[in-house]
Specification:
The complex is a heterodimer.
Chain A: H1 2-16, E1 27-31, H2 41-50, E2 53-57, E3 67-68, E4 71-72, E5 76-79, H3 93-101, E6 105-109, H4 116-123, E7 126-127, E8 134-136, E9 149-152, E10 164-167, E11 173-174, E12 180-185, E13 191-193, H5 198-206, E14 213-214, E15 219-225, E16 231-235, H6 243-246, H7 258-269, E17 276-285, E18 295-296, E19 300-311, E20 316-319, E21 327-332, E22 334-340, E23 342-343, E24 350-356, E25 362-370, E26 378-387, H8 402-425, H9 430-437
Parallel strand pairs in A: 1-2, 1-5, 5-6, 6-16, 18-26
Antiparallel strand pairs in A: 3-4, 7-11, 8-13, 9-10, 12-15, 13-14, 15-16, 17-19, 19-20, 19-24, 21-22, 21-25, 23-24, 25-26
Helix pairs in contact in A: 2-7, 3-4
Chain B: H1 13-38, H2 41-45, H3 54-68, H4 70-74, E1 77-78, E2 87-88, H5 96-110, H6 117-143, H7 146-158, H8 160-163, H9 174-194, H10 197-213, H11 217-233, H12 239-256, H13 265-268, H14 273-294, H15 298-325, H16 333-339, H17 343-347, H18 349-352, H19 362-369, H20 372-386, H21 389-407, H22 412-435, H23 445-453, H24 462-472, H25 476-480, H26 488-498, H27 510-537, E3 546-549, E4 555-558, H28 560-571, E5 577-579, H29 585-592, H30 605-616, H31 619-628, E6 631-637, H32 648-662, H33 687-691, H34 693-699, E7 712-713, E8 718-719, E9 730-735, E10 741-746, H35 756-763
The chains are: A alpha+beta, B mainly alpha.
Chain lengths: 439, 782
């Protein structure tokens, strides 16, 4: 798998020169109706310019299949056919989840209708409003329909540029799953409703807004990074990607940021940006350079991790020293030591820590578990036994044991003196010797 | 002097003595051969394989010792046992057995005999059984004479009570320990008889070997002081006792402290205090004797006795006080369970859960000892008749070992040697009387009546009638007999040469003799048949490999254990942690070479209880425990298909009990029974039982095996539900041919962060309930 993806990387590097590319492969399957394909031409063009190799497929077409012989056929899958009631039989919520376990990234657009994708969203802790609900916002005042909402892009590591993004589609509430990565949330004035008829609004207002899906906690574009490292991005509606919205102008005459925004979202989803990895870890006895199979209790251990970030511009991995909040744990059932693992100044990409092993023998693990929203998870676990000192590893002479040494020495001396006297006593007069012998 | 049969008259005493000595050597060699051969049933019927559970650890440790040397073995920390706690093997093991095999291995290899270490381990126990026979011969010789010694050697060579622990492949500490036990006792008796510091030291050296070899060394540690104490109380204190005991205790204790596992226990724990106390008492008495021999005043003597008693009482009080203060460790639970058989069940279920710690069933005495159990009391009575110091030893040994053998099955092993010795003394006395060719002088009617009455073979008074009047008569040779036993052959020689012996009491005629002798021989022959049968049918099963017999008598080998262990070995990563009940820990480590959570070295009760809790809980509760301990595979033993009764469902209540000991709030034994208090696995099983991981893993897809027909568990004879349990957090990885071993893989965390139950129902296409966003605080109505 590794080999394959690096091969793909190499090939695409040859083809597309210095263009940006993904760290996990450049083949993309786009599931979209052929009729609507032209709506998103700018988005597809942008991807192709970056070096992606797009393959289009009708939602109901039988080929190309997404998983062949348990191997995913594409590195990334975009599902824009949001209105399709049903897909070909190899595209089901179950196979899409299987794809994520096979490290394939997904970019999925939802629709207000009840589709197979709606039930898939629930698996990602996204809670969709009742079917038919879409996002409404009457602010700011504008000529567009209230369902075409300009949203200001928040400052996240994923999206860089400013400006409004035009959105229309389903907002969704986010569950408490820590793997979710909010990218774009609804404006505070936005709410979800099936219709904007007066009764609905009045009723909602009567209840003080209770039951109304509203506010900035609603997600519009939300990422999800699985524990395996695959990235899935949910978009409330496919129109965000459309050429039409990219060309729009905002209320104050500001140009819509859609074109760049969707490229940024795709870049994150397709593992171009914010991709980190642990190159290697090693551990030594402090101030030595030989790695040991096992350590003794109370040894000073130096642990180092080498971390790289993927540079999409050059398509290479470069050492990365930008993490300041990483922790190292030395764990046996529970962490016995939890300490900051900080970058070593002067050595790019190296993070190191020297600590004293606990006074407890057992099978320990060096654990790095760095999970930050948006960034790839850094996980590393290295098993190392910590053993008690060897039989000759204990101190030989203890000052506290002097009473015992004194006892042993005095007994030895006493025995020597006694033997000497006993043997010497033999030459004395027989009478005295006899008296001794009866003892 | 009349004889029953004509005796050759032209044989010189030297020839007789030489022939007797040659015969003894030949007999001992034959006994050794028989002892070794009868232990080879296991190899012949199955193959050269290590048996059962503990031997697998010993074998694995021996391999480490043989390949890495003694120092590495001493410092061996095993990170794969008791994961993730690890086990300091070098400091928690009795290394005598491994060291013995290691030495044999090195000697053979230095002689360019490339013998596999496994074969040395397999054949070590039979080899040492021959040495045991010899040690028993030496010991019994001290009790009576050579002929009794040979009988005892023959008995111990083939008696099932000892074979049960020493068949080929039963590579356990007991394999060499019984030899060491008997030889240490022999040296002790010898030292006591001669007052020899040399034999005392030899006893101490073998005691050290015993300490290094088996935890049962405490038996010697308490037997010898008890013997000494009894001698003192009987007023038999002598300087011989003083020299023997002091040299044994001082050197033996110092030597035993060199074993890392024992360390300072000999001066810190209650089990060893008796030896120390008797040592102190001997010093005081010796001092008192010394003073008494120098002072004549009657009053001073009285004062002395009072002070001796006072010192004794003070010493006892000091002992109690130090125990109370904690300087001396109190008795351990294992020790208490020796006195109160219900103790372990109440307080330490982990000890009670071992089958060999259960009280002995009465039939097993006959099974293990056969007719020796009837001769045994007769032999003890014989010891009372003579009652020299060494006979007191046998009497004390017999009393103590009989008690312990009744308390714990495994302690039958310590009883067996003394049974053999005492029975040999009794039987040899009987044979001495009836093989003796001399006939009494005629014309004494009552004597004949006596001897015919005494013809019953098991009657212990037989010999007394024969010898008591004999000692009363004038023959000087016979008068000496109680004090210094000479062999029957010696008597014969003197009889043949001098023909001056005059017997007034004895056996007339050849027919009486033949009746008794043939009867005795018949019992001996039956004994041999019994031993052979028991050995081949009951004690030679390796338990790693099972055998079943078809209707036509053909043997069918059931090799599920090794099949499953080798599957683990070849299909899982080297560091995959396997969880199973502790019984199988050593086997998994030995055969599958994978880390285990718990094993037969049950040193950490909490860790075992953790495993018990995981097995007894529902999947949701067990999963975090499994993940925390990095468990990759769970292995259960299930006998329901084949009718293999030693499976995990039958051990399950012990898991529950042990877990309950640590988590009384979460695991409760009554929950696993039906409301009517039955332990069931069928439809009526309690919900807790059906939800438990153990039940689910055992019966997962079991009903499918019967294709819709009634699925019957053949161990418990119950029909399990047609719709079997489902598993969400584990998946079946492997099931062996006869379903005895079932291995499950623990799923990794769901990549989407769902719990596995939800994930599983999604995979199977079930609709999930619509969820609502978590309610936050209400908006303030404006």
């Amino acid at each position: 798998m590794m080999l394959l993806s690096s091969l793909v990387l190499l090939l695409s590097g040859v083809i597309s020169g210095t263009l940006a590319k993904s760290s996990t492969g450049n083949t993309v399957l786009v599931v979209v109706e052929t009729a609507k394909q032209s709506n998103y031409s700018k988005f597809f063009k942008g991807l192709e310019n970056k070096g992606f190799d797009l393959t289009f497929r009708e939602p109901k077409a039988e080929s190309p299949v997404i998983i062949q012989d348990d191997v995913p056929s594409f590195s990334h899958v975009i599902v824009l056919a949001s209105d399709a009631k049903n897909f070909a039989k190899d595209i089901t919520p179950q196979t899409l989840i299987e794809l994520t376990t096979l490290k394939t990234n997904l970019l999925i657009a939802l629709s207000p209708k009840q589709t197979p994708l709606s039930s898939l969203a629930a698996e990602f802790s996204l809670i969709l409003p009742t079917p038919g609900s879409v996002l409404y916002s009457y602010f700011p005042e504008r000529a567009d329909k209230p369902t075409v909402v300009p949203v200001n892009i928040p400052q996240t590591p994923i999206t860089s540029q400013k400006g409004p993004v035009f959105f229309s589609g389903v907002p969704f509430a986010l569950g408490d799953n820590p793997l979710l990565v909010p990218i774009l949330n609804a404006p505070v004035e936005g709410f979800a409703a099936e219709s904007t008829s007066a009764e609905v609004l009045v009723e909602a207002a009567d209840r003080g807004g209770e039951g109304l899906w509203a506010g900035s906690r609603l997600g519009l574009v939300t990422g999800f990074q699985t524990l395996d490292g695959a990235r899935v991005t949910w978009v409330g509606g496919p129109e965000v990607f459309s050429d039409e919205y990219a060309a729009k102008e905002g209320p104050n005459g500001v140009k819509a940021a859609n074109a760049q925004f969707v490229q940024d979202v795709a870049a994150w989803t397709f593992q171009e940006s914010l991709v980190l990895r642990v190159d290697k870890v090693n551990h030594f006895l402090a101030n030595t350079t030989t790695s040991l199979e096992q350590y003794t209790t109370n040894d000073n251990i130096e642990f180092s991790a080498y971390i790289s970030a993927y540079d999409a511009k050059t398509g290479t991995w470069a050492p990365y020293s930008g993490i300041t909040d990483m922790q190292l744990e030395f764990t046996m059932l529970d962490p016995h030591i939890r300490t900051a693992l900080l970058p070593v100044p002067g050595v790019p990409g190296k993070y190191s820590k020297t600590f004293r092993a606990p006074d407890r023998h057992g099978v320990f693990k060096f654990v790095i578990n760095y999970k930050r929203k948006g960034y790839s998870y850094l996980q590393s676990s290295t098993i190392v036994p910590v053993v008690p000192p060897r039989h000759d590893g204990y101190p030989r002479f203890l000052s506290a044991a002097w009473p015992y040494y004194a006892g042993a020495i005095s007994t030895s001396l006493g025995f020597f003196v006694f033997s000497a006297l006993w043997l010497a006593g033999d030459s004395r007069p027989a009478k005295k010797g006899k008296a001794q012998k009866t003892e | 002097m009349p004889t029953a049969i004509p005796l050759p008259s032209n044989v010189s005493p030297a020839t007789v003595a030489n022939t007797a000595s040659l015969l003894r050597i030949v007999a001992l060699l034959l006994i050794s051969g028989a002892a070794i051969a009868s232990r080879l049933f296991a190899v012949v019927n199955f193959e050269s394989v290590i048996h059962e559970f503990d031997p697998w650890f010993n074998y694995r440790a021996t391999r480490v010792l043989a390949s890495k040397g003694f120092y590495e073995f001493w410092n061996w920390f095993d990170p794969t046992a008791w994961y993730p706690l690890g086990r300091v093997v070098g400091g928690t093991v009795y290394p005598g057995l491994m060291a013995t095999s290691g030495v044999i291995y090195n000697i053979l290899h230095s002689l360019n005999l490339p013998v596999d270490i496994r074969n040395i381990c397999v054949l070590l126990a039979p080899g040492f059984s021959a040495l045991t026979a010899w040690a028993t011969y030496m010991f019994t010789k001290e009790m009576k004479d050579e002929s009794a010694g040979l009988l005892a050697a023959a008995f111990i060579g083939i008696v099932p009570g000892y074979i049960s622990r020493s068949v080929a492949g039963s590579y356990d500490n007991e394999a060499i320990a019984i030899f060491l036990l008997m030889f240490t006792f022999f040296c002790w008796i010898k030292a006591l008889k001669l007052g020899s510091a040399l034999f005392g030291t030899v006893a101490a050296v073998f005691y050290f070997y015993m300490v290094a070899a088996w935890g049962g060394y405490a038996f010697i540690t308490n037997m010898i002081p008890l013997h000494a104490l009894v001698l003192i109380l009987m007023g038999r204190f002598t300087s011989r006792l003083y020299v023997a005991y002091s040299s044994w205790y001082a050197i033996g204790t110092l030597a035993s402290m060199q074993v890392p596992f024992v360390g300072f226990q000999p001066v810190r724990t209650s089990e060893h205090m008796a030896a120390l106390g008797v040592f102190g008492l001997l010093q005081i008495i010796a001092f008192a004797e010394l003073v008494r021999s120098h002072v004549s005043s009657q009053q001073f003597k009285r004062l002395l006795y009072i002070s001796v008693a006072a010192i004794g009482v003070l010493g006892g009080l000091a002992f109690v006080g130090m125990t109370y203060k904690g300087w001396i460790a109190p008795w351990t639970g294992r020790f208490y369970s020796l006195w109160d058989t219900g103790y372990a069940k109440k307080y330490i279920p982990i000890i009670a859960s071992v089958s060999e710690h259960q009280p002995t069933a009465w039939p097993s005495f006959f099974m293990d000892l056969q007719f020796l159990i009837f001769l045994f009391p007769a032999g003890v009575v014989f010891c009372f008749r003579q009652l020299r110091d060494e006979h007191i030893f046998v009497i004390v040994y017999a009393v103590v070992a009989s008690y312990f053998a009744g308390v714990m099955v495994r302690l039958m092993l310590t009883l067996t040697p003394v049974v053999c010795v005492a029975s040999a003394v009794a039987l040899s006395s009987l044979l001495d009387t009836y093989i003796d060719v001399r006939e009494p002088e005629v014309a004494e009617e009552p004597a004949t009546d006596n001897s015919t009455q005494g013809a019953a073979p098991t009657n212990g008074t037989n010999g007394s009638q024969a010898t008591t009047p004999a000692s009363a008569t004038t023959t000087t040779k016979k008068a000496k007999k109680p004090a210094q036993p000479t062999s029957a052959l010696g008597d014969l020689v003197s009889l043949v040469t001098s023909k001056t012996g005059k017997e007034t009491v004895g056996v007339f005629g050849i027919d009486t003799r033949l009746t008794v002798i043939l009867n005795a021989l018949g019992m001996l022959v039956f004994f041999v048949f019994h031993c052979t049968w028991v050995t081949s049918s009951a004690y030679s099963s390796p338990s790693v490999v099972l055998a079943s017999h078809g209707a036509d008598g053909s043997m069918h080998i059931i090799d599920d254990f090794r099949e499953a262990y080798y599957w683990l070995r070849q299909n899982t990563p080297q560091d995959a942690v396997v969880m199973s009940w502790w019984d199988y820990g050593y086997q998994i480590a030995g055969m599958a070479d994978r880390p285990t959570l718990v094993d037969n070295n049950t040193w950490n009760n909490t860790h075992i209880a953790t495993v018990g809790k995981a097995m007894a809980s529902s999947e949701e509760v067990a999963y975090p425990i499994l993940r925390k301990h990095d468990v990759d595979y769970v292995l259960v033993i299930f006998g329901g298909v084949l009718g293999y009764s030693g499976d995990d469902i039958n051990k399950f209540l012990w898991m529950v009990r042990i877990a309950q000991g640590v988590w009384p709030d979460e695991i409760q034994e009554p929950n696993y029974f039906t409301p009517s208090g039955e332990y069931r696995v069928d439809e009526r099983a309690s919900q807790t039982m059906k939800d438990s991981l153990m039940y689910k893993m055992s019966y997962y897809r079991f009903a499918e095996l019967y294709g819709g027909g009634p699925a019957t568990d053949r161990v418990r004879n119950q029909q399990v539900p047609k719709v079997g349990p489902t598993l969400d957090y584990l998946e079946e990885a492997y099931t062996s041919e006869n379903w005895i071993v079932r291995i499950y893989q623990v799923k990794k965390e769901d990549p989407l962060g769902r719990d596995h139950k939800t994930a599983n129902s999604f995979t199977h296409g079930k609709k999930r309930k619509r969820s609502k966003p978590a309610p936050r605080r209400k908006a303030i109505a404006g």
